[in-house]
Each structure stands twice: as structure tokens, then as C-alpha cells.
């Protein structure tokens, strides 16, 4: 009891009196030009980030406010009779993905749909052994394999990769017979019932808007593989539940995600077809189609499992491609959206959607200014920090945690509370992506063209499995070292905050330390311990055809 009283008198109480009750130096601070040059950009960045943070709250509000507008595969406007089911083409674009192509094709060949109104196109742009692997697999299923009769599957190989994925999809359309086009990336495993759950949404009903595209929700084959894949799953769940759910229920524009969705062929043609001047050809086509008046539908209750990246550099490559592609699409499409006849709230949501990644360069600016701004603000007084800085920090950062908590509660109502364990690392990972995504965003803003960098897939689903990953593993050059150095800078700011007894800023600063050190270290160390068998059996995935 005496120890507690002493701590209360000489710990928290002394700290509060010395920092917030002592007015000895109250009028000694004088504003100067240096403070102006530091604080103007600091607050400008904070206000912009706060607006994007508030927008996350708005998406949550739209999701719940328009719950009655949620679409379901169980209640389409009408249903096709079996005799009138439309012809469907399933397109499978792949590029150097020998580990997963057999799993993908097997799943698609087992989809429940009449075979006289169904075809599969394996669109192969590969430049390695995948071409031989894929051709053999297609031949096997075309002849009948794995308990299946001969399947209507076709192998289309290009040698020039013109237009990358968009070019491959466009090339496939030239010979496609389908009125409807379903698309699955190489790391997806569509369930047998997927097509029959989606197809009836395209039944045309008088008085109802014609559906141009249906997007389904991604789930995760290897969610439990590692802590990283758990965090990635939460990030994607937030996108598919609250972003897609909120936008689709509110009737504003949202995008096809490049896979696990189905298009009406007429919609693609009327919107101008697949174009490859951005790295997110799916979002580009989505906005062009919706500007033409086509209605999109999102089915949250239709799931399509896929493989998450298991390595940090693969995840960063994926995120950088999406970040750059969205900014490219924003530059291309936003002027058309703003000049269109769409409602103002649709235009505003499109602006937030397509410009959201501008927050990454702003985070770099904030990282640079945070330390001097913290010193200046501490001299100016705690009341200003409490009334101005704290609300801005809460709007820009706390919205992230609440956003993903809500999405997990919607998907996992019995276990959602476990998400609290991952929240600090989720927020730290967002900080750690700043360097690579800032580079991607600046390339998009300044028109720097780069190749379509695919995300490596290794067909790793369970703990203990390791792919023969060296073939596709990529390094990020000097970027991880920069991340480690920036992490050291923020570690120094934590030390300074402790020394100056500015304890309220320490949790926020620690997120920067954790984020930069984690992404940097994992990027450098990935694969270094693959040869170590630490109490687990190593399962190496060979080439599927023994090549």
C-alpha cells in the first residue's frame, strides 16, 4: 500500500503537475518563422489524412445504413430455366505460375454447369516451364482426367505479353463464345457451385437495370499459414466487406477486382474493351462501364478462396502494383467522372476511392515533420495538442482499427474479438508499406511506365509447407535498408519522447518503429531460414507434371 501511494505521489501525480499544472514558463514561448515552416505542412498533411480517415467511417455508415440493399445469390430478380442458361466462357490468365495452374484448372473443370454451354480458356503468357506444364494439363482435361469426362478447355499461348493481363484477356475474347465471361486468377480455386450462384443475376427482367458485372468475395486458402497471412486476410476482408459492401449498397461506383467475378460480354465491348495503359485494368474498365450506365452487383455471400502472399516482398509487390494502378486510373478516369451526369455523392466517392493512395507520400512528409513538430507543439502547450493534434491523430489512425474490427465482426461474429491482437501489427504494416507504395504512387503521378509485376504464387496452404520459391522470389534492392534506417530514426524519437516525458506520443511513434523494422527485416530475411527444419516437416512442391 505504501508503494502504491509513493508511486501515485511521485509518478503520475508528479508528471501531471510538472507538465500540466506548472505555469512558470507559460508565457516564455514565442512563435517564429521556423515553427511556421514546420507546422503549416504538418497540419496540412494531418488534415488531409484526417479526411481520408473520416471517409472510412463514412463507408461503415453506408454499409449499415443501406443494409436492406444488400444483394444475395439466393434472391435474384429472376432465374434462368435450365434450357435457357447462357453460354459462359471462363478465362484463366496465367504467367509463370507452374505451381498452381493444375489446381486452378481442376477446380474450373469441376464447376457445375451444362457442358454444352461452357468453355474454359487457359490464357498463358508464360516464358518458363509453365508453358509445357500448362499445355500438358489442358490436354489431360480435354481428353478426360481425374474422374471427369472430356472438358471444353482450350490452351491459348502468347509469346509477346503485349498489354500484359489486359492484353491476354482481350486476345481470349477474340475467340470466346460466351455471352458471359468469368475470370479467375491463377491462385484462385472456385467452388463447384460458384457459377450457378452467380449466373441468375444476369437474367434480364423488365423494369430492372441490366447487370453488367457481378463481383464475389475473396476468401483465403492459407489464412492460418503465418502471422503475416492473418494480417493480410484482415486487410482484404475490410476491403471486400466495407468498401465493396458500402459502395454497392449505396449505389455508387465500385470496381471489379480482376478475378472471381463475371462480366456480360456486351458490357466489356460497350465500355471500350480491356485497355492496358494502367496497372489496374480491372478498375479502369469498371469505371468506364459504369459511366456507360451499366449496373454492377456485389455478392458478399458468394465466396471464392484464393492464396495469400506468404512473403513480405510478394505482398509489397502486390500492394505497390495496386497503389500505382489506382492512381493511374484516377488520372485517366476522374476527369470523365467529374464531367459526367453521375450524382455528386457518386463523384465524391470515386474521388476518395481513386485518390486514396496519395496518403502514402503524405505519410513520408508526416514522418519527416513529426519529430520537429512534436518538439514545437510541446512548447506551445498541452491544451492545443489535446484540442487540435489529438482529434486529427484519432481521425486519421483510429479509423483504421475500427474499420477492420467492424469487418471482422460482420464475417466472424463469434471470434471477431481476436482481431484486437492483430490491430497494432495491421496498423504498423500499413506504415511499413509507405516507402514502396510512395515510390509506386510517384511513378504514377509522373507517368513512369513499368511492367506488370505479378504476385508470386507457391501453392502453400498449411503451416510447415515450403515451396521451391527461389525461382520466383524477388528482392527489393535498397528499399528494405531504407526502411530499417527510418525505423531507427523513429526509435530515436521514442527515446527523445521518453527523455522529455512526452509519453502520450510514444504509442504512435512505436507503430512507426514496428512498421518500418518489420517490413524491412522480413524483406531481407525472407527465405534465409527455408533450409532450417524447426520441428516441422518440410513439404516441397515439385512441378505438377514432373518437369
TrEMBL record:
Example of a GO biological process term:
cell wall organization
Q: Which CDD domains match?
A: CESA_CaSu_A2 (cd06437)
Listed transmembrane segments: 39-64, 358-376, 382-407, 419-435, 478-498, 504-525
Cross-referenced InterPro entries? Nucleotide-diphossugar_trans
Keywords linked to the UniProt accession? Cell wall biogenesis/degradation, Glycosyltransferase, Golgi apparatus, Membrane, Transferase, Transmembrane, Transmembrane helix
Q: Where in the cell is it found?
A: Golgi apparatus membrane
Q: What is its main location?
A: Golgi
| Any one GO molecular function term | glycosyltransferase activity
Q: How does it sit in the membrane?
A: Multi-pass membrane protein
The protein here is known as Glycosyl transferase family 2
Give the source species: Terriglobus saanensis (strain ATCC BAA-1853 / DSM 23119 / SP1PR4)
Source species taxonomy: Bacteria, Pseudomonadati, Acidobacteriota, Terriglobia, Terriglobales
Amino acid at each position: 500500500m505504501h508503494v502504491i501511494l509513493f508511486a501515485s505521489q511521485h509518478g503520475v501525480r508528479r508528471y501531471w503537475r510538472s507538465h500540466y499544472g506548472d505555469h512558470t514558463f507559460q508565457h516564455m514561448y514565442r512563435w517564429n518563422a521556423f515553427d511556421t515552416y514546420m507546422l503549416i505542412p504538418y497540419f496540412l498533411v494531418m488534415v488531409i489524412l484526417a479526411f481520408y480517415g473520416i471517409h472510412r467511417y463514412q463507408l461503415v455508415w453506408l454499409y449499415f445504413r443501406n443494409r436492406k440493399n444488400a444483394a444475395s445469390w439466393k434472391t435474384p430478380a429472376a432465374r434462368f430455366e435450365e434450357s435457357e442458361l447462357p453460354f459462359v466462357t471462363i478465362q484463366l490468365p496465367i504467367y509463370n505460375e507452374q505451381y498452381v495452374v493444375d489446381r486452378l484448372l481442376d477446380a474450373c473443370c469441376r464447376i457445375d454447369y451444362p457442358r454444352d454451354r461452357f468453355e474454359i480458356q487457359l490464357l498463358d503468357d508464360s516464358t518458363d516451364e509453365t508453358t509445357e506444364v500448362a499445355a500438358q494439363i489442358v490436354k489431360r482435361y480435354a481428353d478426360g482426367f481425374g474422374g471427369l469426362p472430356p472438358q471444353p478447355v482450350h490452351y491459348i499461348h502468347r509469346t509477346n505479353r503485349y498489354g500484359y493481363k489486359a492484353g491476354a484477356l482481350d486476345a481470349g475474347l477474340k475467340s470466346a463464345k460466351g455471352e458471359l465471361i468469368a475470370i479467375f486468377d491463377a491462385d484462385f480455386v472456385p467452388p463447384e457451385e460458384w457459377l450457378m450462384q452467380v449466373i441468375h443475376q444476369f437474367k434480364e427482367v423488365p423494369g430492372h437495370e441490366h447487370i453488367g458485372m457481378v463481383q464475389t468475395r475473396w476468401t483465403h486458402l492459407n489464412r492460418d499459414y503465418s502471422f503475416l497471412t492473418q494480417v493480410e486476410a484482415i486487410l482484404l476482408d475490410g476491403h471486400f466487406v466495407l468498401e465493396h459492401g458500402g459502395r454497392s449498397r449505396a449505389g455508387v461506383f465500385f470496381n471489379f477486382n480482376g478475378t472471381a467475378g463475371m462480366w456480360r460480354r456486351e458490357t466489356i465491348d460497350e465500355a471500350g474493351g480491356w485497355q492496358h495503359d494502367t496497372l489496374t485494368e480491372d478498375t479502369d474498365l469498371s469505371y468506364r462501364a459504369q459511366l456507360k450506365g451499366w449496373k454492377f452487383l456485389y455478392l458478399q455471400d458468394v465466396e471464392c478462396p484464393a492464396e495469400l502472399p506468404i512473403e513480405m516482398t510478394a505482398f509489397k509487390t502486390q500492394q505497390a502494383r495496386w497503389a500505382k494502378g489506382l492512381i493511374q486510373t484516377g488520372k485517366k478516369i476522374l476527369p470523365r467522372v467529374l464531367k459526367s451526369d453521375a450524382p455528386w455523392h457518386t463523384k465524391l466517392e470515386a474521388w476518395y476511392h481513386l485518390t486514396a493512395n496519395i496518403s502514402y507520400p503524405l505519410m513520408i512528409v508526416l514522418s519527416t515533420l513529426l519529430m520537429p513538430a512534436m518538439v514545437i507543439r510541446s512548447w506551445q502547450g498541452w491544451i492545443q495538442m489535446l484540442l487540435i493534434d489529438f482529434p486529427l491523430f484519432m481521425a486519421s489512425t483510429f479509423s483504421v482499427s475500427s474499420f477492420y474490427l467492424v469487418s471482422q465482426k460482420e464475417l466472424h461474429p463469434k471470434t471477431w474479438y481476436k482481431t484486437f491482437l492483430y490491430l497494432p501489427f495491421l496498423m504498423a504494416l500499413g506504415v511499413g508499406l509507405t516507402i514502396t507504395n510512395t515510390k509506386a504512387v510517384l511513378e504514377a503521378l509522373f507517368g513512369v511506365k513499368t511492367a506488370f509485376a505479378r504476385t508470386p504464387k507457391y501453392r502453400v496452404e498449411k503451416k510447415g509447407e515450403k515451396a521451391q520459391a527461389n525461382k520466383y522470389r524477388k528482392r527489393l534492392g535498397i528499399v528494405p535498408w531504407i526502411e530499417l534506417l527510418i525505423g531507427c530514426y523513429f526509435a530515436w524519437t521514442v527515446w527523445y519522447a521518453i527523455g522529455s516525458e512526452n509519453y502520450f506520443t510514444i504509442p504512435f511513434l512505436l507503430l512507426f518503429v514496428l512498421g518500418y523494422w518489420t517490413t524491412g527485416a522480413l524483406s531481407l530475411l525472407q527465405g534465409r531460414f527455408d533450409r532450417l527444419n524447426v520441428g516441422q516437416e518440410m513439404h516441397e512442391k515439385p512441378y505438377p507434371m514432373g518437369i
